[in-house]
From TrEMBL:
Database matches in SUPFAM superfamilies: (Trans)glycosidases (SSF51445)
Protein's UniProt name: beta-N-acetylhexosaminidase
PANTHER family on file: BETA-HEXOSAMINIDASE, BETA-HEXOSAMINIDASE-RELATED
InterPro entries documented for this protein: GH, Glyco_hydro_3_N, Glyco_hydro_3_N_sf, NagZ_Beta-hexosaminidase
Domain Glycoside hydrolase family 3 N-terminal: 55-383
Keyword Hydrolase: yes
Length: 418
């Protein structure tokens, strides 16, 4: 455990009850004995945590890789291939990870997932963002355990924003009970191209206004549940017939078209309080003529999302193991360029050691300035603080999860959607 984790434990121990003895202060304490006021770093838990991190630990906070297997203390075959003889817990410790993402291969039972998440939290320097893609419908990584809620297209067909909010809240409640605190949902893309091979029914439709209403409601539902929502895929993945998992789509929308067609759901998500937004591995030549995908584009991530739309939360990349982003620059350089473009969270690097070492080298050389690195780490720490993760390491309860996951109320809600 890193120094920050030790500090958290020490503070928790100091705050416990220990009797009610009365202490009588001196009647007139000398001026020199006055307790100095707290410095900003001491008073603010985010600043305090940041001040205690080494550059290696700061870089680690940016990464959210896949860790393989169903237990934190055992080495699966895939984990062996990726990380050598290291358990997920050791990978978390070695790279000072800020987050992990769960996939179906990590999931066997409610008890097992709760234990996995709790054990991974114990291994971390700072509490982890534990994420998954539980959009419902075709992309549902936790479907082996969770209530089978309908996906976005079916929810949109109800034309009822209350349904969108209720399903997102119930989804978030189940995730939180399992120890998952971030969901890469909802999809905020407007599915303009009916040939779209990767979005399709994952979207709330092909009309910006209707998609915006449903996205905003879903964000509020996740917030109701205390789970971080992530609007994706910025600046919009709806008008493409190329899958960015296997290729690099190009969208020729003008800036005016983007504002009218693609931007509204992301603006609505921001207005609803979304805390994270995921980038798309898509080239928008009219928004950035460089030829780089949005994930690596400073004009798009910093210019449009930060400055024009005013988003102050965490920007996550889409998975960095996708062909649409990694082939041009390689697995180390792509991570560095994503940070320079404005990304805070580096999701699923194909080669974690290579990506981590590349970002660390860029930080040490000054290519990624200390200020730029601290900006991203601060946003991630603020996100953790907002969800209570910095106060004490989160612990999921098997008993609570058994009550919440696939509860009668949630199954009734799912069955009520036509």
């Amino acid at each position: 455990m890193g120094t920050t984790g030790i500090l958290v434990i020490a503070l928790a121990a100091c705050s416990g009850g220990g009797g009610s003895a009365t202490v009588v202060p001196p009647a007139q304490p000398p001026a020199s004995s006055a307790v100095p006021s707290s410095t900003p770093a001491q008073a603010d838990p985010v600043k305090r945590a940041l001040s205690e991190l080494s550059v290696q630990e700061k870089v680690g906070q940016l990464f959210m890789p896949v860790l393989y297997g169903t237990a934190a203390d055992s080495v699966s075959g895939e984990n062996q291939a990726r990380y050598g003889a290291q358990t997920p817990a050791k990978v978390i410790d070695r790279y000072h990870l800020g987050g992990v993402i769960l996939f179906p291969a990590n999931v066997k039972s409610v008890d097992q997932v709760v234990k996995l998440n709790n054990d991974m939290q114990k291994a971390a320097d700072l509490p982890l963002l534990i994420a998954t893609d539980q959009e419902n419908g075709p992309v549902s990584r936790m479907s082996a355990l969770m209530t089978p809620f309908p996906g976005a297209a079916r929810i949109a067909a109800t034309k009822d924003v209350k349904v969108s909010r209720a399903v997102a809240r119930a989804t978030g409640e189940e995730l939180r009970a399992l120890g998952v605190n971030l969901d890469f949902a909802p999809v905020a893309d407007v599915n303009i191209d009916p040939r779209n091979p990767v979005i399709g029914e994952r979207a709330f439709g092909d009309r910006p206004a209707e998609v915006s209403r449903m996205v905003a409601a879903a964000v509020k539902g996740f917030n109701d549940a205390g789970v971080i929502a992530t609007a994706k895929h910025f600046p919009g993945h709806g008008d493409t017939h190329v899958d960015s998992h296997t290729g690099l789509p190009v969208i020729d929308h003008t800036r005016a078209q983007w504002k009218r067609l693609d931007a509204p759901p992301f603006k609505a998500a921001i207005g609803a309080g979304v805390e994270a937004i995921m980038s798309a591995h898509i080239v928008f030549p009219k928004l950035d003529p460089s030829g780089d995908p949005a994930t690596l584009s400073k004009p798009i991530l910093t210019g449009l999302l930060r400055q024009e739309l005013g988003f102050k939360g965490v920007i996550s990349t889409d998975a960095l193991n996708m062909a649409g982003v990694r082939e041009k620059y390689g697995d180390g350089e792509v991570a560095v360029r994503a940070v320079l473009a404005g990304a805070d969270l580096l999701l699923m690097p194909y080669d974690l050691p290579k990506a981590y070492n590349a970002v660390l080298a860029a930080a040490k050389s000054g290519r990624i300035s200390e200020q730029r690195l601290d900006q991203s780490v601060t946003r991630l720490l603020k996100l953790k603080q907002a969800r209570g993760l910095l106060a004490e390491p989160p612990v999921a309860s098997v008993k609570e999860a058994a009550k919440v996951v696939r509860s009668p109320a949630h199954r009734k809600l799912a069955a009520s959607v036509p």
